[in-house]
Amino acid sequence: MFKAEKTRRISASSPCTAFIPRKWFAGVLLVLIAFPAAHVAAQTQSREESTDRPGRDYKNFDLNSPAPGSLGGPEDVCRETCQRDAQCKTWTFVKAGFQGAKPRCWLKNVIPAPHANNCCVSGVPVRSLEGDVDRPGGDYANFDLASGDANACKGACEKDGSKCKAWTFVKAGMQGPKPRCWLKNAIPPASTNNCCTSGARDTVLH
After folding, report:
1. Where along the chain do the CATH 3.50.4.10 domains lie?
2. Whole-prediction pTM value?
3. What are phi and psi of 3, to 5 degrees?
4. Which residues make Cβ contacts (< 8 Å) with residue 16, sequence separation at least 6?
5. Which of 9, 5, 47 shows the shortest CA–CA distance to 202?
6. Distance (Å, rounded) from C-alpha 80 to C-alpha 60?
7. How far apart, in whole angstroms, are the C-alpha atoms of residue 91 and residue 61?
8. Using CA atoms, how far apart are residues 16 and 9, in angstroms rounded to an integer?
9. What confidence tens digit (pLDDT) does each residue in 3-35 have?
10. What Cα–Cα distance (Å) separates residue 170 from each residue in 101, 148, 175, 179?
11. Superfamily of domain 45-125
12. Cα four-point dihedral sign 193, 163, 128, 104
């Protein structure tokens, strides 16, 4: 996973525009503004090439080819649609020619098991608060909580500075009589499990 980068305003005096002819500036400026948004969104997810995650679909739709000269493509539309929908826990992009003439996007409300398949690209969003999601592994600390609120674990991760990259809150009764918080020094792969709520630091879209 990657940390999201802050974007800067771009003006005519920016170093990256110093050698751009004035007649081209408006078009290039539009491209430079559009690119960071797509780049940052991509940093908030895992991307799985040649992977299908079949099942538990709640929405699917065809995707159109991008206009000439535009940034991104149909896969980016599928990924972004999932990222912005809190119900979506996984997406699968099916390439053109496998389910019709156009590529197709499938949005899922759980995290199905991955299967190798060159038909597809899949991904799992990384969010600051992920209900019914476990992220096992990468633990460096764990402790009981007095509160049954997952935000107590989230807050503990945030207070631990840059060491804590992700966290998992386990409900009371699953690992003992009290809720338990697990702090992680990496962002492990996610799996659907109603035992838990998880989250990651430094995400852009929640």
Report:
1. 45-125, 130-200
2. 0.72
3. -75, 145
4. 10, 32
5. 5
6. 14
7. 12
8. 12
9. 333 333 233 333 333 444 444 434 333 333 333
10. 45, 9, 7, 6
11. Hepatocyte Growth Factor (3.50.4.10)
12. negative
